[in-house]
Design goal:
Shape: globular
Radius of gyration: 20 Å
Largest sheet: none
Helix content: over 70%
Oligomer: single chain
Length: about 425
């Protein structure tokens, strides 16, 4: 853990990050985490391996993104601040995977929030500031409510623990993008640097949900196994699926489209945590498989923005002509988010559904989940082809080079392998 935190903070040193030495060391750290997880069957180390992989890709792609492409390049001062904040963000994401007390994990969650808010509002302009302000207000309020929940759960009496459990769901749910306190998420993704969006959606949201799950497990133990806290999580998960899928169909901006997809998939993870048993394993697997797929899409959206100056679906098209490799990675990522087999998200979503179908009280939410995921598939199938076949206006851009496409290729391989890794991971014990 100390090495992971040190590497995260070392990434704040701009020359280290820009030289891509940070990306190489984080990639090595990811291999170490995977090996440790293989030996111990520890789910937390798998999560930290995901943070290391996506952090490596973020550091690799950040210099090209900051150079601006067809847009104005970031100033030297803004770039220095960006790498400092990105290093703090990475260190706090590693901390989310630790077996700490609930209060210590709350501190880690707050660190992820504050550093990501600063990264979103770093670039000058009214829209980044507005998105960061909305994020800060809702997530900051959520943090205070969650802190009150942590304190009440520590109080010990049944009424205090019950109130604390509700506050945890509200507070951490706001930070994780669960409906109805999700409204900051689309604006934040639309304005955040693409590498930040990838980390935010790929690992931060799911990591916060896992902290929420830990807190609810503690509360349920003190409430002698009361089921209503997880029932509340199931209700919010189902509501998030409804809103996420419903909003996806009307989105033209690629990053906003992916943001609402994140709302949808956080709903899937919340449902798996609420179902328990095999559904809980499916939820943790979905943290990994969704993290790979969603970050893949966000990283490519950053390449599209630097090349074409926009991620508006009405302004971009035929992306395969200038980005043959990365556009293929985007197609693979969207297919995974749609639940196409044999990619990893298909299996993790199915395990969540099996967890719900296995208990009479959760059969209806599980069936509703499957119907909504089918509608999400339709939304992606409708929107995605336009990126390849819409006529593209403007001057043709040069074709991408091997270094530019390398992270996409790595994530594509991992995304394909994630489907084959599911049977191996099913033999692991339940987390925490």
């Amino acid at each position: 853990m100390a090495v992971a935190l040190l590497l995260g903070l070392l990434s704040a040193w701009r020359p280290f990050a820009r030289s891509r030495s940070g990306a190489a060391l984080l990639a090595i750290l990811a291999v170490a985490f995977v090996w440790a997880a293989y030996l111990s069957g520890n789910w937390s180390e798998v999560y930290q391996a995901l943070v290391a992989v996506l952090g490596a890709v973020a550091l690799w792609s950040s210099p090209a993104y900051l150079e601006g492409g067809v847009e104005e390049a970031w100033s030297a001062g803004l770039q220095a601040a960006y790498f400092i904040l990105l290093g703090v963000f990475l260190a706090s994401l590693f901390a989310l995977g630790e077996h700490w007390s609930l209060l210590a994990l709350w501190v880690a969650v707050e660190a992820t929030t504050l550093s990501s808010v600063a990264l979103i509002g770093l670039k000058s302009g009214v829209h980044p500031f507005e998105a960061a302000w909305k994020y800060l207000m809702l997530a900051g309020m959520g943090g205070l409510i969650a802190l009150a929940g942590v304190i009440l759960i520590g109080g010990g009496s049944a009424p205090a623990v019950a109130a604390g459990a509700v506050m945890l769901v509200v507070g951490f749910g706001a930070k994780a993008g669960l409906v109805p306190l999700h409204t900051w998420l689309p604006d934040a993704h639309a304005q955040a640097p693409a590498p930040v969006s990838a980390l935010l959606s790929g690992v931060e949201l799911a990591g916060i949900l896992w902290v929420l799950h830990d807190g609810l497990q503690t509360a349920q133990g003190l409430l002698h196994g009361a089921a209503w806290p997880t029932d509340l999580l199931i209700a919010l998960g189902l509501l998030s699926l409804v809103v996420g899928v419903g909003a996806m169909a009307g989105q033209r901006n690629l990053k906003r489209f992916l943001a609402y997809s994140s709302v949808e998939h956080m709903g899937v993870i919340a449902l798996g945590m609420g179902f328990g048993g095999i559904g809980l394993i499916g939820a943790l697997l979905h943290v990994i498989t969704h993290g790979l797929a969603k970050s893949q899409c966000f990283f490519v959206s950053g390449q599209i923005q630097t090349r074409y100056g926009s991620v508006d679906g009405d302004k971009i098209g035929r992306v395969h002509e200038g980005m043959p490799w990365s556009s293929g990675g985007l197609l693979l990522g969207l297919a995974a988010l749609a639940g196409v087999p044999p990619l990893g998200p298909f299996f993790s979503e199915w395990l969540v559904a099996v967890g719900g179908l296995g208990h009479p009280g959760t059969v209806l939410p599980a069936i509703a989940m499957l119907i909504l995921l089918a509608l999400g598939f339709v939304a992606i199938a409708y929107r995605a082809p336009r990126l390849w076949y819409r006529p593209m206006q403007g001057v043709p851009v040069p074709r991408e080079g091997a270094l530019e496409a390398a992270p996409t290729m790595v994530l594509s391989v991992l995304l394909v392998l994630s489907g084959f890794a599911v049977p191996w991971m099913l033999h692991w014990p339940l987390p925490r």
